[in-house]
UniProtKB/TrEMBL annotation:
Keywords attached to this entry: Cytoplasm, Methyltransferase, S-adenosyl-L-methionine, Transferase
Protein source organism: Streptomyces atrovirens
SUPFAM superfamilies: S-adenosyl-L-methionine-dependent methyltransferases
Domain of life (superkingdom): Bacteria
Name listed for the protein in its UniProt record: Protein-L-isoaspartate O-methyltransferase
PROSITE patterns: PCMT
Length: 400
């Protein structure tokens, strides 16, 4: 693709400014990664994306405005070189960027991750020259291009479950002179033809560590991925794989979240009112309110993941002032309502007392001194996957 000289000149200037900003914030300590950021033209990987518009529609849904060079060249190029995540797809529907339309609401299913996080991921995984790397989730291909620039294309394999996404990414990568191994494949199963790998880095999240990723990592190799679940609790973990096929690693700090692998996405649960109608009429006083896991704080972000480990099949729904926990696997449910005095009351029904399980985790967390994520270790052994802490009960992850 031949681009106007002024576009390339402007893009070069904006790349340099973005790299300078990331370096000033301590993101680009490695000169090799900085050189990659200054070289890879991100705008070629995002010919179109969505940005939130002003206000909401009549149903209260976010208005997502399409942004392309044809619609608004300046806005498109400035956003391409901003440290922001750019949504490129909703609900698995591939947009027609030649004639894009505004979207109302929807679940993002593909994006170009903000550059600071992309670089942080490669750095956190301790990716170095000579490593062979598997990237799970090619997306737009921008992250893949940075890895190719740093390691050379021969050391990079990237898989993407969406064939349309991969086709666009491959075109952009090849147009920039990068020829990594690309494949349409479900990252849940890694990519056996190119295994084993020194490093595996996932740009999507999983409910538990996929066993195939552990099996495809060389002894001493590392896996960086984000764990998530149906409560939308997240935790990043860096695992080191041992010679016996087990893996262990500490959770990493921060509030990073990724879209779930499509086969790990939460199922629809129906109408919360139907679930609440089946609950017993008598309510008890809740020992902890839902704000412990829903507040916009780092501690609540961490606690939501711990709580999710105790009720892995539960989902949250808010209706008015009430918060509902719904478990489509066991058929259990709980409803929390404010009591008017700053406290909460809870009704629970089914074989699993969902909020009681959450409260036990919160009790243990408080008793342990409210430990941070980096004090927890994830152990992946033949017996399953468990989150361990020296002062808290073991928390199992869902069976992969």
């Amino acid at each position: 693709m031949t681009l106007p000289v002024d576009l390339e000149t402007d893009a070069t200037r904006l790349r340099a400014a973005m790299a300078e900003d990331l370096a000033a914030r301590g993101v680009l300590d490695d000169p090799a990664w900085r050189a990659a950021v200054e070289t890879v033209p991100r705008h070629r990987f995002v010919p179109g994306f969505y940005l939130p518009g002003e206000g909401r529609n009549g149903q209260g849904l976010t208005r997502w405005q399409p942004v392309t060079a044809r619609l608004d060249h300046g806005r498109w190029l400035a956003a391409a070189y901003s440290d922001a995540t750019l949504i490129t797809q909703f609900d698995g529907d591939e947009p027609d960027w030649g004639n894009p339309a505004e979207r109302h609401g929807g679940a993002p299913t593909s994006s170009s991750t903000l550059p600071s996080l992309v670089v942080r991921m490669w750095a956190d995984a301790d990716v170095r020259e000579g490593h062979t790397v598997l990237e799970v989730g090619t997306g737009t291909g921008y992250s893949t291009a940075l890895a190719c620039e740093r390691l050379g294309s021969a050391g990079v394999t990237s898989v993407e479950v969406d064939p349309h996404r991969l086709e666009r990414a491959a075109s952009a990568l090849h147009g920039c002179g990068h020829t990594p191994t690309l494949a349409v494949a479900d990252g849940l199963y890694g990519y056996w033809p190119e295994a084993p790998f020194d490093r595996i880095v996932a740009a999507c999240s999983f409910r538990a560590v996929p066993p195939a990723l552990v099996a495809q990592t060389r002894p001493g190799g590392k896996i960086l991925l984000t764990l998530s679940g149906w409560l939308y609790g997240y935790a990043r973990v860096l695992l080191t794989v041992a010679g016996d096929g087990t893996a262990e690693g500490c959770l990493l700090d921060g509030t990073v979240s990724f879209m779930p692998a499509r086969t790990h996405a939460a199922p629809a649960f129906g109408n919360p009112a139907h679930w609440a109608a089946e609950l017993p009429g008598e309510a008890r006083v809740a020992r902890h309110g839902p704000e412990r896991i829903t507040a916009a704080t780092e501690e609540a972000f961490h606690l939501r993941f711990l709580a999710q480990s105790a009720v892995p099949d539960a989902q949250l729904a808010t209706v008015g002032d009430a918060l509902h926990l719904i478990d489509v696997v066991s058929g259990s449910a709980a409803a929390l309502t404010p009591d008017g005095d700053g406290g909460w009351r809870v009704r629970e029904g089914g074989s699993v007392r969902l909020w009681e399980r959450v409260e036990r985790v919160l009790d243990a967390y408080d008793t342990a001194g409210r430990p941070g994520p980096e004090t927890f270790t994830l152990c992946v052994h033949d017996g399953g996957q468990h989150l361990r802490h020296p002062r808290m009960p073991c928390l199992p992850l869902p069976t992969p």
